[in-house]
Structure formats: C-alpha cells, structure tokens
Q: What sequence folds into this?
C-alpha cells in the first residue's frame, strides 16, 4: 500500500492466488474477464500475472510445484470465485462473450437463476476447471 491510499479495514480480502496449468491460456480467459469487470493489470513475471481491483489483487501463476494439470472444483478446496458483475444486462453480455475467451456456461438449463430465484448470475468454467460466478447487482423477477 502506498502512503496516499487510505488504510484498509481488517478482514477484507487482500489477494487470491490461483495456480494454473497453462499461464497463456489462463491469461487469455481470466485477463479478458477481469478487464471487463474493471480490474487492471498489476504485475507480470515469467510464471505469473496479476490484476488489481482497489486494494485487492488476483494472481495467476504457473508454478513448477503443481501436483495436477486440472482444477477439480468438486474436490476439497476452492469451488468458485463470485464477482460483482453489474446489472443483469452486464451479466448477459459477459456470458454471451465468454466462450470466445475459453469460458463455458455451467447450469445452462437453469441460467440465469441457477443459484435460485433471488440470484441472477452467470456461472462460467474455464478450460482448466476453474469456476466463476458473475453476480448481478439487482435481480429481476423470473418471468416478469
């Protein structure tokens, strides 16, 4: 943190680091999505990239210590990241564009209410098995 930034209250998220099996592929998919959501490139090094959003940053790293080449969101550990995506129209736009950047829609038969009638969201998974939930800032009434 630089001296001109206000202090961050305790308990807020500092950063998330995701180990990926293919940094170039992850940079394409995650870089597009994070950029669309207002994150800005932060750091870059041979095995990693990061993006910042306010005081929080997200790291993608292709570590030589990886024990697997695919993330299993159904195993113990991280299931998904949920990100604010703006109004429902923004969620719809991102879901429509996502396949061009390596993302696939999960729960298509229940989209955009896969999380229930009070949760307008798009659930995406990338080619490495990571899931994101794009949460709308407001929830239209289903069928209304």
A:
């Amino acid at each position: 943190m630089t001296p001109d930034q206000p202090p961050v209250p305790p308990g807020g998220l500092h950063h998330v680091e995701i180990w990926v099996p293919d940094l170039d592929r992850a940079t394409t998919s995650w870089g597009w999505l994070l950029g669309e959501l207002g994150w800005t490139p932060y750091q870059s090094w041979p095995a990693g990239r990061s993006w910042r959003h306010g005081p929080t940053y997200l790291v993608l790293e292709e570590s030589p210590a990886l024990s697997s080449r695919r993330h299993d969101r159904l195993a113990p550990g991280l299931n998904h990241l949920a990100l604010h995506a703006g109004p429902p129209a923004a969620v719809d736009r991102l879901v429509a564009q996502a396949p061009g950047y390596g993302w696939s829609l999960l729960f298509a038969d229940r989209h955009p209410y896969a999380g229930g009638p009070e949760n307008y969201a798009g659930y995406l998974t990338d080619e490495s098995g990571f899931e994101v939930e794009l949460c709308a800032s407001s929830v239209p009434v289903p069928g209304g």
